[in-house]
UniProtKB/TrEMBL annotation:
The lineage of its organism: Bacteria, Bacillati, Actinomycetota, Actinomycetes, Kitasatosporales. It comes from Streptomyces fuscichromogenes. Residues 20-303 form the KAP NTPase domain. This is KAP NTPase domain-containing protein.
Length: 429
């Protein structure tokens, strides 16, 4: 059993999601952008391959000798550290460049003062990548507190110094591309800090900042920032689009990866005993075309099936069991409330599936009303769930026969052994 990892695609030779044409389109547009700076937004929902897309674009840029820097803000759990860490990442790259140490020192001094103002205090050493040592912070602040005009000029000159440092770093005709990935993982406060900190670095610098995030996260960020101001705002404002216009000059929405493409990419990792269109149609209905969700599903499913095979001894589970186990894992991942009902009463699968089929075959509204009245109270909340109906009561080649109560208990026990207790979450987490 080979598990699928969640590592991003790094090279076009491994581009199973077929992002290359889209990378080339965006690269061509940014390559012609003048004047700089420019902020690009690469938008996509959770698990759709934003990191892979950015890594492939980074590969394209490096092939053309364009300087790039990669920054992961989610690693910094205090919001006041995030912008400082971004500066640290850039300064760390510049420090090794001949002739840039003096400018890096001036930037670091300004960053120290900005860090203290932001509440970072003596942790300013982090903000400057070690250019300003911990023991130097107090003396620098003493100089600043005396009203040293030159020191204040250095702070106010931050934008120009940064512009000049970038120019020396990349050359008169070059550009520095800074990738800011995984904003989805940040708290709204931290994400907002990253977005607002960009104004420190933009000015007239030869920079392209590339932000990868979910538009829904941006909406949460904007709502968190402006609070009651959004209470009566139009829907398009609440969605974050209005705020997006102020931050990003070039938005790019990641193309959907087709399910057939994902099936081709992931099929070699699915357990050797499982194959056939019914399995993949079930996954398409239950999980959709989300790469990360499918990866995690395949890993958990493979492990659970291995355990089931080991438990069954000489009688290996057959194709029907494979589909039932896959359906139960989808239920655990995407229909948590029903999964808990099923764990308490394993007959609920067959009862709800029978209800769905009867409702589909009912001759008139009177018959449908009777079926509704006969449904137990604990199953009533699910009677309008079309996605769940598609899993439990699909007909023809799509059908997954309802397992016995004993089989349901056994499968739930297996999933708890391989995927953890029911309350740990889903394969999305």
């Amino acid at each position: 059993m080979r598990p699928l990892t969640d590592n991003p695609i790094l090279d076009f030779a491994d581009d199973a999601f077929r992002f290359e044409p889209y990378v080339d389109v965006l690269h061509g547009a940014v390559e012609q952008a003048e004047p700089l700076p420019l902020t690009v937004g690469v938008f996509g929902s959770w698990g759709t391959g934003k990191s892979s897309f950015l890594r492939l674009w980074e590969r394209r840029l490096k092939d053309r000798d364009v300087r790039t820097i990669w920054f992961n803000p989610w690693k910094y759990d205090r919001k006041v550290e995030v912008w400082a860490a971004l500066l640290h990442t850039i300064l760390a790259e510049m420090e090794g460049e001949e002739g840039l140490k003096e400018k890096a020192l001036r930037l670091a001094k300004a960053a120290t003062w900005l860090s203290v103002r932001a509440g970072l205090g003596t942790a300013a050493t982090v903000a400057t990548g070690g250019v300003i040592k911990g023991g130097d912070v107090d003396s620098l602040l003493t100089e600043l507190s005396r009203g040293d005009a030159e020191q204040y000029r250095q702070i106010n000159r931050f934008e120009n110094d940064f512009r000049d440092a970038v120019r020396e770093f990349v050359g008169a005709e070059g550009r520095l591309v800074v990738f800011v990935d995984d904003l989805d993982r940040c708290t709204p406060d931290s994400a907002m800090t990253v977005l607002e900190s960009l104004k420190l670095f933009l000015g007239e610098s030869q920079c392209v900042f590339v932000l990868a995030l979910d538009l829904d996260v941006l909406a949460a960020v904007a709502t968190n920032k402006f609070g009651d101001a959004f209470r009566d705002a139009p829907a398009e404002v609440v969605s974050g689009l209005a705020y997006l216009d102020k931050i990003v000059q070039l938005p790019f929405f990641l193309p959907d990866v087709g399910f057939d493409t994902l099936r081709t990419a992931f099929a070699p990792w699915v357990h050797r005993q499982v194959d056939g269109p019914a399995f993949w149609r079930l996954l398409q209905r239950g999980l959709g075309a989300n790469p990360r969700r499918l990866k995690r599903f395949v890993n958990v499913f493979n492990m659970a099936l291995e355990v089931s095979i080991a438990q069954s001894g000489s009688t290996a589970p057959g194709p029907v069991f494979h589909l039932q186990l896959a359906a139960l894992l989808v239920i655990r991942s995407r229909h948590r409330e029903f999964f808990h009902v099923l764990a308490a009463d394993p007959t609920s699968w067959e009862r709800l599936a029978t209800y769905f089929r009867r409702m589909g075959d009912a001759a008139d509204s009177r018959e449908r009303d009777r079926y509704r009245s006969e449904l137990p109270d604990e199953l009533a909340p699910f009677r309008g769930d079309r996605a769940l109906e598609g899993l439990l009561a699909a007909g023809g080649a799509e059908a997954v026969p309802a397992p016995s109560a004993e089989t349901v208990r056994s499968m739930i026990s297996t999933l708890r052994a391989t995927a953890g207790p029911d309350d740990l979450g889903s394969t999305d987490g």
